[in-house]
Amino acid sequence: MNELEQKAGPSPRRQLNLFYLIDTSSSMAGNKIASVNAVMPDVIKIIEEVDEANKDNAKILVSCLEFSTGCRWSTNVPVECSSFVWRDLQADGLTDLGAAFKELYSKMRRSQYLQSETGHFAPIVILLSDGEPTDDYKAGLRELQGNMWFNAAIKVAIAIGDDANKEVLKEFVKNKELVITVHDTKSLKEIIKVVTRGVSQIGSQSTTNDKDKKELVAEMVNEVVSQVDHAENVNSPITAPDKWD
Fold first, then answer.
1. Residues 167, 190, 193, 110, Cα dihedral to 10°
2. Where are the alpha helices (DSSP H) in 58-203?
3. Three-class SS of residue 149?
């Protein structure tokens, strides 16, 4: 190593914020929320693997916002994936998705959850819901869509079962291909894992612009739903009836 290389050192790691928005309303009680709780520790390990493989480029921080009657963050600040500890969620109450949108808007800014001295990759947002919003989600979404970070973000929505309002989820992601419907606990767990790995890998790349990344995510989602039984999107046929018991 020459003197210049010694002085320069490694390049600083840009921050990649990964947000989970998880429906914990009463309709999620039972096997649905149990499946989410069961798979998330494995999901955090997947994020750690992606983070480690890309340790010279990106630092992944994780946040989880649950929404039912109101909404709550699982941690006070985004947590590095290596330190994130999953705490099981409980399902009860309404589906205040609009409140969750407004809360995400309030935190998705440099003065809040996007603080970094080394720069950012576009955030990632994964939304999971099984029902119908019970508050004014449109007002919350309009506010959120005024946030430049949200507009740049990579977004994927997972519709948990046939009762999920997929039209609302399409409004959120702005790409109907990126709404994935799952019909049982096995497909729910598998989709959360493979989508997390895919978006984390794509989102932490530094060689493509954000538009290219979103196109890559759409390609990844189409491939995933073709390979996971009982999962589908607009480009795939209905694979199975719901079975959550």
1. 10
2. 97-107, 137-144, 148-152, 166-173, 185-203
3. helix
Q: Which of 224, 213, 223, 207 lies closest to 54 in space, CA to CA? A: 207
d(CA 180, CA 157) in angstroms, rounded, equals: 6
pLDDT the model gives residue 5:
39
Instruction: Please say whether the beta carbons of 67 and 24 come within 8 A.
Output: yes
- Beta-strand relationship, 154-160 and 58-68: unpaired
Could you report the per-residue pLDDT of 63-101, keeping only the tens digit for each? 999 999 999 999 999 999 999 999 999 999 999 999 999
Model confidence, pTM: 0.93
As a residue count, the chain comes to 245
* pLDDT tens column, 109-140: 888 888 877 788 999 999 999 999 999 999 99
| Cβ–Cβ < 8 Å for 152, 123 | yes
Query: Strand locations in the chain, DSSP E?
Result: 14-23, 58-68, 70-73, 79-80, 124-129, 154-160, 179-182, 231-232
Q: Count CB neighbours of 116 within 10 A.
A: 17
Name the phi and psi angles at 228, rounded to 5: -100, 120
Distance, C-alpha 115 to centroid of its chain: 19
